[in-house]
Design goal:
The protein is an alpha+beta fold and 120 residues long. It has helices at residues 2-7, 26-47, 63-67, and strands spanning 12-19, 51-56, 73-82. It has a 3-stranded antiparallel sheet with strand order 1-3-2.
């Protein structure tokens, strides 16, 4: 699986490995937490000008051996990170840096600036 991700130019990949749900309500709880973790990673990467992509694990039977995790766990999703091959494609897709936002507002910036320019 990692070979397929790295061939696409990813610099790093994270396998989102979770326990198998066994009790009522665990599936929903795990999915909720997993979504929050993924969202936090994607937003933090974007803030640093790092691109990301999400992928589903299509070969679930091969995942434990490929990723090295044991029984009782599962991996349904992967997230890859890297800098875009064509940075100009991101112009116009920026967000204001967190330090420039007031209160709890997370609205997009009116000025369109490449988010990576502050990190070069």
């Amino acid at each position: 699986m990692w070979d397929a991700i790295s061939r696409q130019g990813a610099a790093a990949g994270i396998a989102l490995v979770t326990p198998d749900a066994v009790e009522d309500g665990e599936t929903e709880s795990i999915a909720f937490d997993l979504g929050r973790y993924a969202q936090t990673m994607l937003l933090a990467a974007w803030e640093m000008g790092i691109g990301s992509a999400q992928a589903c694990v299509c070969e679930a039977d091969a995942a434990p051996a490929t990723l090295g995790y044991s029984a009782g766990l599962r991996c349904d999703y992967l997230v890859s990170f890297g800098y875009p091959a064509e940075p100009d494609q991101l112009a116009g897709l920026s967000r204001r840096p967190a330090a420039s936002r007031s209160g709890s507002s997370c609205t997009a910036s009116a000025g369109r600036q490449d988010p990576r320019s502050a990190h070069r």
